[in-house]
Amino acid sequence: MEWLNLKGKIAIVTGGSSGIGQAVVKELCQLGVKVVNADLSEGSFIDENLIFLETNVADRQSVEQTVNEVIKRYGKLDCLVNNAGINIPALLTDKQGNSDYELNDRIFDKMIDVNQKGVFLMSQLCGRVMVSQGTGVIINMSSESGLEGSEGQSCYAATKAAVNSFTRSWSKELGKQGVRVVGIAPGIMEETGLRTIEYETALAYTRDKTVEELRQGYSQTGTIPLGRSGKLVEVADVVAYFMSDRASYVSGVTLNVAGGKTRG
């Protein structure tokens, strides 16, 4: 993929130690990008083009330290991938009463902090660098649920809808300074280590299913025209393209990477 001409560029990927983030980190490293994995813990992937900086995206001081270290090391920043996010399934109201699976202040605040405030902080501090350079790309990882909503995941879906709005608004603000802002909304993806038993138990409860029934649903792709779940690398491919100058006139949009799946 030399046509993307990414070798030597500098990128920060938040939440790059697992899931989609790790797939993005791997692909960018393979394309010669100097990648900074900004996560709470270091992942298993190791590459000469990769460094890890422990980062809490919801904490301004932590984000400032990371961005300052990147500029100190490399002198520039070409791309920020806002990938870090958490999903805690919970119902707005639970017929069983105030259960562990009803949305509460703690769950709400935690998801808002990481998924929404984290995107704001990283984008503001990295955006300042990019504006001073007159160039740069911010890529916001959204979700199909941010476009369609999701049963048992209303708060998560709402944070992703907010991210979509950030993408549209910031593209209007930063485009004047030479900085592009784009989004990616993955649909149903292949299994990753993020599907913990705790997550599956909570989601199954909110949908009045057993964990076994929930797992059976992963393989039911009848609503996806391409007839299969997405691969993590297919999201990484879009990140690489959006980061490159091949996408130099693409800004303010969120691309739904979901195999053609839509509301209908």
TrEMBL record:
* Keyword line: Oxidoreductase
| Keyword field contains Coiled coil | no
- A Pfam family in this protein? adh_short
The protein's matches in InterPro entries, at most eight in alphabetical order, are given as: NAD(P)-bd_dom_sf, Sc_DH/Rdtase_CS, SDR_fam
Q: Name one GO biological process term.
A: bile acid metabolic process
An example of a GO molecular function for this protein is: oxidoreductase activity, acting on the CH-OH group of donors, NAD or NADP as acceptor
UniProt keyword Amino-acid biosynthesis, yes or no? no
Coiled-coil annotated spans: none
Entry superkingdom = Bacteria
Q: Which family does it belong to?
A: Belongs to the short-chain dehydrogenases/reductases (SDR) family.
Q: What is this protein called?
A: SDR family oxidoreductase
- Organism annotation: Vagococcus allomyrinae
